């Protein structure tokens, strides 16, 4: 939200292009710094959920998103899935509660780590593979549409 507000303010205040460019470069370098100093060190995508404007939008919009991930009763609490989650959305408390934390981006990387197929997607009453496939189709289509719009 701050990035969008800053961009609009720079435009409305007729800030010279050079200064706007320098601000954008500083923002990008700060992001790279966060990636190098925090994300790499923690081996988690901290920059995606704490700094990136798109990651912020995903985390806000997911509360109205009809797709959900949950952990069913077949979970043995082996915690193997936590090694696959790059967004730090799976910790012992979240797994015991049956759902990933607020930082979950619904990426599905954790599915590869669950040997008991306990982590599942849900879309209203549709579950697991059908819900995941629908989610992937919609997400890929949305990304393609956004990239196409950005090219215009």
Brief digest:
The protein has 152 residues and is mostly helical. Helices cover 53% and strands 8% of the residues. Strand 2 (119-123) and strand 3 form a beta hairpin.
Overview of this protein structure:
With 152 residues, this protein is mainly α. Helices cover 53% and strands 8% of the residues. It contains 6 helices and 3 strands. Strands 1-2-3 form a 3-stranded antiparallel beta sheet. The relative contact order is 0.10. The mean pLDDT is 82.
Largest sheet: 3 strands, antiparallel
Helix content: 40-55%
Report how far the terminal alpha carbons are from each other. 23 Å
- Count of alpha/pi helices: 6
User: What is the topology, as strand order, of the major beta sheet?
Assistant: 1-2-3
**What order do the SSEs take from the amino end to the carboxyl end, as H and E?**
HHHHEHEEH
Structural class: mainly alpha
- Residue fraction in strands: 5-15%
Secondary structure: number of strands: 3
What's the mean pLDDT score?
A: 82
Uncertain spans, ≥5 residues at pLDDT below 50? Answer: none
Assign an overall shape: globular
Oligomerization? single chain
Radius of gyration: 18 Å
Give the tags:
152 residues; mainly alpha; 3-stranded antiparallel β-sheet; 53% helix; globular
Task: Set down the secondary structure blueprint.
Elements: H1 2-12, H2 17-42, H3 46-50, H4 53-61, E1 67-71, H5 92-97, E2 119-123, E3 126-127, H6 128-151
Antiparallel strand pairs: 1-2, 2-3
């Amino acid at each position: 939200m701050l990035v969008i507000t800053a961009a609009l303010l720079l435009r409305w205040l007729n800030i010279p292009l050079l200064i706007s460019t320098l601000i954008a470069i500083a923002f990008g370098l700060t992001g790279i710094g966060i990636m190098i100093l925090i994300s790499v060190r923690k081996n988690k995508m901290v920059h995606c959920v704490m700094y990136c404007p798109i990651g912020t939008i995903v985390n806000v919009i997911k509360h109205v998103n009809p797709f959900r991930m949950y952990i069913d009763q077949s979970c043995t609490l082996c915690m193997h899935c936590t090694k696959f989650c790059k967004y730090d959305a799976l910790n012992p408390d979240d797994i015991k509660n049956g759902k990933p934390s607020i930082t979950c981006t619904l990426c599905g990387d954790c599915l590869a780590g669950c040997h008991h197929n306990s982590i599942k997607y849900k879309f209203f009453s549709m579950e697991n593979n059908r819900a995941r496939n629908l989610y992937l189709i919609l997400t890929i289509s949305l990304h393609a549409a956004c990239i196409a719009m950005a090219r215009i």
